[in-house]
Amino acid sequence: MYPDQDFEQLSAERPTTSGKSPEQVLHEVFGYESFRPLQGEIIHEVVSGGDALVLMPTGGGKSLCYQVPALVRPGTAIVVSPLIALMQDQVAALRELGVRAAFLNSTMDFEQARATEYALSTGELDLLYCAPERLIQPRTLELLHDASISLFAIDEAHCVSQWGHDFRSDYLQLAVLANEFPSIPRIALTATADERTRKEIAERLSLTNARHFISGFDRPNIQYRIAPKTNVNKQLLDFIKAEHEAHCGIVYCLSRNKVDATAKMLAQKGYTALPYHAGLPATDRARNQERFLREDGVIIVATIAFGMGIDKPDVRFVAHLDLPKSLEAYYQETGRAGRDGKPSTAWMVYGLQDVIKLRQMLEASQGNDHFKRIERQKLDAMLGLCEVTKCRRQVLLNYFGDELEAPCGNCDTCLNPPETWDGTVAVQKALSCVFRTGQRFGVTHLIDVLRGSVNERVQQLGHNQVSTYGIGTELSANEWKSVFRQLVANGYLRADPEGYGALQLTEQCRPLLKGEHKVELRKDPVIKTSSSRSSSSRSGNAVKDQVTDHVGWEALRACRKQLAEKQGVPPYVIFHDTTLFDMLERKPETLDELAGVSGVGAAKLEKYGEIFLAAIAELDQA
Ligand code: ADP
Ligand code: ZN
């Protein structure tokens, strides 16, 4: 995927950074002005030899927390990373910065692996990325003992958690590092961990003395929106058209079939939409991922197999066509939007069928009771977010132990507060209709009975004789659907575990059936297709939407594209959009001035400085 790892060229290129201060490394190598919140403290802890457990949202800047110490401390930093694609991207990006980085994984042949191991043993590497299964091999551990190691970084550390959604058994064995290398600092990083998982990470990785660094979870640039599902394809098209035309985005679906169908549907409407799921040949998957990373405006339609470790900064929207099974999953998936800090949208549609399907999948799963109980709680929290009538961000952050004092003003419930209504009577009617028809029917039939439909099935079953027949004409079929959805979401009704979507009463619904409790229901908002919001969110959207000098912008992008193609890397590895934008604003004329642009470090200044200065100079003449 990337050019061969050429160590000689690297070591000759790079002036030593070990012994410099973290700030110097930040400016000179990465070209950044200052540390983000917590980065400075974390780096200080690791540089001075302490262990750290870092919890930071996606896009928060975790990588620098070990990359800077890796350059400040003498020796090679070993980075454990579960995904090969991520590893390769990170190594490519670091090498662009002039950092001596390499990886060891199963894609390499014997020769390549030997060359990398040799570079490690002779101290020619600043960072070595390594797959966990590789690292714990006795042979690798022996190699590490003979080398000079600066630190161990364990990325995606929640993979040690058996209850988490990304469990990897190899991660459990990483505890050996504590015993075998007691004096070398270790830093574990993750974006998804509630308190229980955090404790599990600390225990399982023997990080009991590590300082915990927990940064705020808020991603203020992401607008969270969840709408009732009506006509999925039309809803998705309307959304993209109104707000994210020509933007890069990810669309998540639960099944492979739906991924294929949705990608095809979008492609027919003229979008560059590519499928990604485990059922595709590996070469197709790799090619689609490459195009997503390298081209502009590509929409990837994927199952959750896609995305861990995708660090493309300018993903403008993440759309969920099916409900994720936990808030952890939702947060991680939506977190792939807007890593560059620019306005982005997390958009989801969900309906009764989602709830039924997830509940059934859960009950049918193999796990033991304890496991199922935890999964049930997680799903309930996810459904809670969907049905909430107050600020969604507050609910989301609260779940992760973070607090937001005031409503955020940037989620759908803040922007368009849903009304509630007294559903006490409606709920009583719905529940008793379930009871009277024997708890054997799905929602469509129940609504037919409530609304007094004269269709054949109702007649044949004699349901035009039951006491709840025709008692619900005051609500439309859609309104009844919303009532049933909320009853299932809140656990008053459950779907028959045997399948077929038959609804059954739960113990919990007894007081409602008797009308002893008042029930407030959410009124599903009426969605206008061209909302007035779209124009305002569009104006603040992608970097390219803020550009006024389009000719200049395209010229700089062309320059970047040419370099990227020559190096065989995605364009953002050369410079991010934000860096190009800054160049266009400042129009630097000298290398010194260019060095002041955010994202321009020493290596890139030397490699690309003159080229971009020439491109900028040409702009003024045009
Ligand atoms: P994470 O791994 O936490 O998801 P990354 O480490 O990929 O996030 O960082 C997200 C983006 O923020 C990257 O593009 C990175 O270059 C940028 N970034 C990180 N720290 C800083 C900083 N101190 N100043 C400017 N940009 C930063
Ligand atoms: Zn809000």
Please explain how this structure is put together:
The structure is a single chain. The protein is an alpha/beta fold. The chain folds into 4 domains: 15-214, P-loop containing nucleotide triphosphate hydrolases (Rossmann fold, 3-Layer(aba) Sandwich); 222-415, P-loop containing nucleotide triphosphate hydrolases (Rossmann fold); 420-522, Winged helix-like DNA-binding domain superfamily/Winged helix DNA-binding domain (Arc Repressor Mutant, subunit A), CATH 1.10.10.10; 547-621, Orthogonal Bundle (DNA polymerase, domain 1), CATH 1.10.150.80. It has 31 helices and 17 strands. A 7-stranded parallel sheet has the order 3-4-2-5-6-1-7, sandwiched between helices. Strand 12, helix 15 and strand 13 (344-350) form a beta-alpha-beta unit. Helix 27 (550-567) packs antiparallel against helix 31 (602-621). The chain is globular, with a radius of gyration of 27 Å. The two termini are 38 Å apart. Residues 527-541 have low confidence and may be disordered.
Number of domains: 4
The CATH topology of the largest domain corresponds to: Rossmann fold
Task: Round the mean pLDDT to the nearest integer and report it.
Answer: 87
| Beta content | 5-15%
Key phrases:
7-stranded parallel beta sheet, Rossmann fold, Arc Repressor Mutant, subunit A, binds adenosine-5'-diphosphate, single chain, 622 residues, alpha/beta, 47% helix, binds zinc ion, 4 domains, 6-stranded parallel beta sheet
